[in-house]
TrEMBL record:
Disordered: region residues: 1-76
Origin species: Drosophila melanogaster (Fruit fly)
Polar residues composition bias: residue spans: 1-11
Cited InterPro entries: Fyv7/TAP26 (IPR013730)
Pfam families reported for this sequence: rRNA_processing (PF08524)
Biased composition (Basic and acidic residues): 39-75
Protein name: GEO10831p1
Amino acid sequence: MKPRSQKSQGKPNGKPNRGAGKVGHNQKPYFKNKNNQKAKGEKPNKPEIRNMKRKEKAAQEAAEREKVRADRDAQVKAYKKKRLEKTKAISKRTQKGQPLMKDRMQLLLKQIEEMKRN
């Protein structure tokens, strides 16, 4: 057997081997652009969709919390106003220091009327 010649050490079509990672002259190298912005027509990928859903959910929860807080504040304000009126009516006194029965009777009348409504 004859030993092979040194010439036939390339690709079978005669082109020489290029090193790993090298690109031909007519090809553009492929680099991943992590910070590249997407074109307007492209769909968002799964992580972006998840992030958008999370943000929407967080915004809805924040709006719900704000609504609940506003309702609670309104209820507390109404209760404080009612309690202040009651305290003023009960704390009224005559010149001699006796409690004023007229205001207490009006307060009791309001309570009775409220109980009848409910």
